[in-house]
């Protein structure tokens, strides 16, 4: 195992061994850690009491974080005609149709972070499934990225909309901001995501739903959060 650096050890020394913190205290502890040489991401990891192998226990969704993610998002929109104009006016970085699909297929071009499509363009987008799917970029109506209201979808993505999905081990990983955010901003973003995940609890999930939660920065140690401290935590 690689030896941890001085900054990591200093941060870890601030943590009480085996303690799970209330969310507010966890955020306060995180922002007391020594700063890195870059603006780290702040991330949540939530271990859920679900079995993702069963379709009725899949937890997936999207939400606009109250304070965004702190990251610039490059949005590509598949649209034509009036929808193309709406997407451009809303701030989309790339807008097109067959021309963009061809560029992605023939040039392996993926210099974008989100893909939105109007419903009439899914015939074109569908051919890109093998490229976009594995990268988590395939538009999905359940996530609001296949929609007739492309302008709204673009604005939401630019404002800091994130998608979350439980992985095969039952864990959701999500970036909820930057280390440069104010503590209240980190707290409110974390609360918004946790509330959304609680609301998305499958009816078929049994036992403890929020099993383990941790908050961390890109280069810092994980801070355990006590699920029982969350007002809306589900048992």
3D architecture notes:
- This protein is of the alpha/beta class and 235 residues long.
- It has helices at 6-12, 23-30, 81-90, 98-107, 122-125, 129-132, 150-159, 183-199, and strands spanning 41-48, 60-64, 75-78, 94-96, 114-117, 161-165, 171-178, 210-217, 223-225.
- It has 8 helices and 9 strands.
- It has a 4-stranded antiparallel β-sheet with strand order 7-1-8-9, covered by helices on one side. A 3-stranded parallel β-sheet has the order 4-3-5, with helices on both faces. A two-stranded antiparallel sheet has the order 2-6.
- It is globular.
- The model has no long low-confidence stretch (mean pLDDT 92).
Which features would summarize this protein structure in a list?
Ribulose 1,5 Bisphosphate Carboxylase/Oxygenase, 235 residues, three-stranded parallel beta sheet, Rossmann fold, 9 strands, four-stranded antiparallel beta sheet, alpha/beta, 2 domains, single chain
The chain-level structural class is: alpha/beta
Strand order of the largest sheet: 7-1-8-9
The biggest beta sheet reads:
4 strands, antiparallel
Total strands: the figure is 9
Mean pLDDT: 92
Number of domains: 2
Radius of gyration using CA atoms only: 20 Å
Highest-level CATH class of the largest domain? Alpha Beta
- CATH fold assignment of the largest domain: Ribulose 1,5 Bisphosphate Carboxylase/Oxygenase
What does this entry show, briefly?
This protein is 30% helix and 20% strand.
Per-chain topology:
Blueprint: H1 6-12, H2 23-30, E1 41-48, E2 60-64, E3 75-78, H3 81-90, E4 94-96, H4 98-107, E5 114-117, H5 122-125, H6 129-132, H7 150-159, E6 161-165, E7 171-178, H8 183-199, E8 210-217, E9 223-225
Parallel strand pairs: 3-4, 3-5
Antiparallel strand pairs: 1-7, 1-8, 2-6, 8-9
Helix pairs in contact: 2-8, 3-7
